[in-house]
Design brief:
By secondary structure, this protein is mainly α. The protein has helices at 38-56, 67-90, 95-121, 132-143, 147-153, 171-198, 203-228, 230-233, 241-252, 261-281, 294-305, 315-318, 322-329, 331-344, 355-381, 384-387, 391-432, 441-444, 504-507, 510-520, 543-561, 586-602, 621-625, 637-640, 646-651, 663-666, 690-695, 697-709, and strands at residues 475-476, 485-489, 497-502, 523-529, 567-571, 608-611, 635-636, 657-660, 671-672, 675-676, 679-680. Strand 10 and strand 11 (679-680) form a beta hairpin. The chain crosses the membrane at residues 63-84, 105-126, 181-199, 206-227, 233-255, 262-282, 288-306, 326-349, 355-372, 393-415.
């Protein structure tokens, strides 16, 4: 998160110090002269471009999220340099002045973008009504700089987010860095106090010791937490402190600053190579932060440490070229603006996702960043109305501005709450009484061949995101390996017993199967785990998540062995990554794993019913449907449909397995449709709305009845 002030590019500690007194009432940050370090500004440019390009083209820059880690190292270096200089010069840190300056530097641009996002949330044309509650909650969390903890508590998976992220999700890093600005000076003051009291005034040595111990403990915590619970580990403050600590130690330990030509040249280019390698080698499956974060963290540290500028081909000189300095200068505002625009753009009428639209949007991000830097960041930093007054004036003004943004977010909810509540009621009525020849029936029911499709799309594209299963207690995610089961339907001893097992593509059918169980007198048992199909082949996902999937499957197998099940229904995401160890390909491994899992039930006389996966879109089709005619939102079959679904290959020709294939409902020979028979098919890029799943109910029911009869 690019938040460090260029004014804080200091003379490296350990050199000759200018011990001038600071002017009365002035900020202690001006107590000594500072030497601007252009290569650090250039490193900011690398960092922000990594993040921005990753968000625009995640497939081409799969590890670009490391840009945030680079910013953490830069901030640790700059802030520690400043604080140590003040401690050395004055013997203390004036916390009020420090925090007030941080507020003047960071909050104006940050709150401006948050205010923009709150106004967008107020506009139903740009924000889906179904997304409003979470959007408002995250704007509030971001306004008060606790977004990282909100995401950690709600177990958001930043690198593999399967839902629809909000316009402010990127504020997690700003929140974490603001928490660093509170904690770090307090740690340094504590170390200085300990030095005066117990170590005979060795302030620098005490500070280095304390920060080194904290950083080492943070790194161990980060590695362990990433292994055991990677989703919250990405956001938790203490798990990232070691990255700030790396920058801090470079600022405080003279031996870590490389002034010789050879060492500076080698270290600088090695650091750049490490960042480039991680940008293209890492992806959403990389266990991160953990050990993997060492590469970008140490790479950034090597670049900062390389300080020799004797030759033009040295990295310090290359990073000092004017374009890099310009991008580094606007990096904070560029980071703030790029993500909301990416989220909002697909909802803008006449906008698309072609390469030309993306390039134009990227250019707009740069323009807005420059305007914000010129007319918001720079003026507020030196605004005399605040700088000429005590720090508390700045801090109270900051609080007032934060309350204004929070109030606007609250107003967005108040204005749209009636529409949200009306949408909830309309959705319930639609599920209870759908139109004739609606959804899949328009394709599969011969009686509907002549029926005209409804004029409206149901549920409305702005509310489709809310059309999802509500029994979240039945669905385990991330590193949770418990084989949680839920029971629905009839409790009669002789009731046919149906099991529904699989990942989120099985969970999306739960409301439909609940209705079938109630109507038919079945007893329904469920086992669901996110991104973990019912298969015996391990996932290729490393670390705790892959291990949790394997453990969950073993638990499900044990639970099934203890139950009398008459028929099993399963479905799964076709693009799940499987380990190919022991097989010619991951496809062969997946097919073998499905057959082995199913055979355990078939050998007991329990038939299996399964279904070919639905198409998967690059982005939520509802973004297109909200601004364009449905015919303009079709996706090419080759782009959205997996041609070789391993589940289909596993089922074909296997005795005891019934395969359902609804591909012709979703697609014709060339395109796949997001609207079928007036029914809105998707609630996000790959999960079906409950409304559409309900339209497939007669065919699910017939397959299960036939399987029960064949036992």
């Amino acid at each position: 998160m690019p938040s460090a002030d260029p004014a804080l590019e200091p003379r490296l500690p350990g050199g000759t110090e200018d011990r001038r007194r600071r002017p009365a009432g002035g900020s202690p940050e001006h107590a000594e002269s500072a030497r601007f370090l252009p290569h650090v500004q250039g490193l900011r440019a690398i960092a922000v471009l990594c993040v921005v390009l990753y968000h625009f083209w995640p497939g081409r820059f799969p590890g670009g999220y490391i840009g945030v880690d680079i910013f953490f190292v830069i901030s640790g270096f700059l802030i520690t340099s400043h604080l140590m200089r003040e401690l050395t010069t004055t013997g203390t840190v004036r916390l009020g002045q420090f925090w007030a300056r941080r507020a003047r530097r960071l909050l104006p641009a940050s709150l401006l973008v948050l205010l923009f996002c709150a106004l967008v949330a107020m506009t139903p044309y740009l924000t889906p009504t179904s997304a409003l509650p979470n959007e408002v909650r995250e704007i509030l969390a971001s306004t008060f700089y606790v977004e990282n903890w909100y995401l950690a508590i709600t177990s958001a998976d930043y690198l593999n987010n399967g839902g629809e992220p909000t316009t402010v999700q990127h504020y997690w890093s700003l929140s974490l860095e603001e928490q660093f600005y509170v904690i770090w000076p307090l740690l340094m003051l504590l170390a200085a106090w300990a030095a005066v009291k117990w170590v005979r005034g060795a302030v620098r040595r005490s500070v280095i010791t304390v920060l080194a111990v904290v950083s080492a403990a943070s790194f161990v915590f980060c590695v362990v937490f990433t292994i055991t619970d990677p989703a919250p580990a990405y956001f938790v403050t203490f798990g990232r402190m070691w990255q700030f600590g790396v920058g801090a130690l470079i600022a405080l330990v003279p031996l870590l600053r490389l002034r010789s030509a050879v060492a500076s040249f080698v270290a600088g280019w090695a650091g750049i190579a490490a960042l480039v390698w991680a940008t293209f080698a890492y992806d959403g499956q990389t266990p991160f932060p953990g050990y993997a974060a060492l590469v970008p963290t140490l790479g950034a540290g090597l670049i900062i440490a390389a300080s020799n500028t004797d030759r033009w081909w040295y990295p310090t000189r290359v990073l000092s070229v004017r374009p890099a300095q310009f991008v580094g200068g606007i990096s904070y505002s560029l980071y703030l603006w790029h993500w909301p625009l990416i989220i909002i753009a697909p909802s803008v009428p006449f906008w698309g996702l072609t390469i030309y639209h993306r390039v134009a949007l990227l250019a707009l991000c740069f323009v807005l960043a420059w305007l914000t830097k010129t007319f918001v960041e720079d003026p507020f930093r030196s605004w005399k109305v605040l700088t000429a007054r005590p720090p508390r004036v700045t801090l109270w003004a900051a609080l007032a501005a934060m309350l204004l943004v929070a109030g606007t977010a609250g107003a967005a909810w108040a204005v749209n709450a009636p529409a949200y509540n009306a949408g909830v009621r309309a959705l319930a009525e639609l599920r209870a009484d759908p139109p004739e020849c609606f959804g899949a029936a328009s394709v599969l029911d011969p009686a509907c061949e002549e029926a005209a499709a409804p004029d409206t799309i149901l549920p409305a594209p702005g509310f489709a995101g809310a059309d999802r299963p509500s029994d979240d207690q039945c669905f385990v995610q991330l590193n949770d390996a418990r084989p949680v089961s839920c029971e629905f339907g009839s409790d009669a001893v002789d009731a046919p017993r149906v099991a529904l097992i699989g990942d989120s593509h099985a969970f999306q059918l739960l409301p439909t199967f609940e209705r079938m169980a109630e109507r038919n007198g079945w007893h329904l048992t469920t086992f669901f785990k996110g991104a973990c199909p019912w298969n015996t082949t391990p996932l290729s996902t490393p670390g705790a998540f892959g291990a949790a999937c394997t453990e969950w499957r073993e638990g499900v197998a044990s639970a099934l062995a203890d139950r009398e099940i008459d028929v099993v229904f399963t479905s799964a995401l076709a693009t799940t990554p499987y380990s190919s160890a022991g097989f010619d390909s991951s496809q062969d491994a997946a097919v073998a794993g499905y057959r082995e899992a199913w055979s355990e039930m078939i050998d007991r006389g329990t038939p299996v019913v399964t279904v070919v996966d639905n198409p998967v879109w690059e982005t939520d089709p509802n973004k297109c449907l909200r601004t364009r005619d449905a015919s303009e939102c079709d996706g090419l079959r080759a782009d959205v449909l997996v041609a070789d679904d391993p589940l289909r290959e596993a089922a074909e020709g296997m005795a005891g397995v019934t395969l359902l294939d609804f591909t012709d409902v979703f697609c014709d020979d060339e395109v796949c449709r997001p609207v079928v028979g007036g029914a809105n098919v998707y609630r996000d890029q790959d999960h079906l709305t409950v409304t559409f799943a309900d339209t497939l109910e007669p065919w699910y029911e017939a397959a299960i009845r036939d399987a029960l009869a064949a036992r």
